[in-house]
User: Fold this.
Amino acid sequence: MPNDISSLTNSKRKKDDEFYTLYEDIANELPNYKEQLRGKRIICPCDWDESLDEICVYASEEYVRGFTLFGGGKIKTIDAYKTNKHIEKDISLIKCNFVKFLVSHAEDYGIQSISVSGYNPATYEGVRFQDIDYSNYDIVITNPPFSEFVEFIDVMYQNNMKFLVIGPQNAIKYRTVFPHLMKNEMWLGYHYHLAGFIRPDGSRVSKQDNLARSCGWFTNMDVSYRHNRLMLDEEYDPARYPKYDTYDAIDVGKTAEIPADYEGVMGVPITFMQKYNPEQFEIVGELNNGSDNEWDYAKPIIDGKQKFSRILIKKKS
Assistant:
């Protein structure tokens, strides 16, 4: 994982949050949840798409579930079970890639409904994600603004929502996000890096850009890797696994190097979360080297030198 997250930090400072998700990234991730989307009412907040006005014009009343008036704006809902070739023909009009993918696959996935909302702070148009009545929906799928990611996750848990969202990988260490990971209430999706983003001006952020490499999927929907046990082939060697100056734990440089015969606490890279099986390991804390360390956790220091942030784990018997 890149250590330099200046792009994300600058986005937070400048509120430069408009990085649109590529269809490619959505198409790579969402099929993994096909059965979990069946029969569900899905909402994509933060993804208001004016082009849906045109879709609703072309679709008759029979194919449109309706509008929900809220805070001066509208949340548009398409009844996916009643979509027909007329809507499918006009999918090209949809600009939001989340909605485009979901409408395209609605029949195959058996999705009950697809809703979309958004808010323009400059004009006060639309619906803020904080103001949505989430009792009308089952699952949230979106790319929330980076500057509001922490609040967005808080809103998800306040409303007991299932979600699949894109966020900065560094959020793993955030004060209000890490406890959900630690308690097995939230985890990473299948893809740790993204293929890129589209900026509002139409230019593309490439896969090699630090912004794309520093973002991934977060969810509380089930993912298959959480049920796979890691094969541990390494043996503990004190010379190879030094202890931290600041915490009684050994440092493990790579997830693949977790020793099979060590029973104490180990500090592993953040990328461990891609392989985390809660039946095999317990997360006991973190060693945070960032400025976002509001937990008063120790920093990962060995022989006086600060190392990368670490997740603290312990094997379960």
Q: What stands out?
A: Confidence is low (pLDDT under 50) at residues 1-15, 53-73, 80-89, 291-295. The radius of gyration is 21 Å. The CA atoms of residues 248 and 265 lie 7 Å apart.
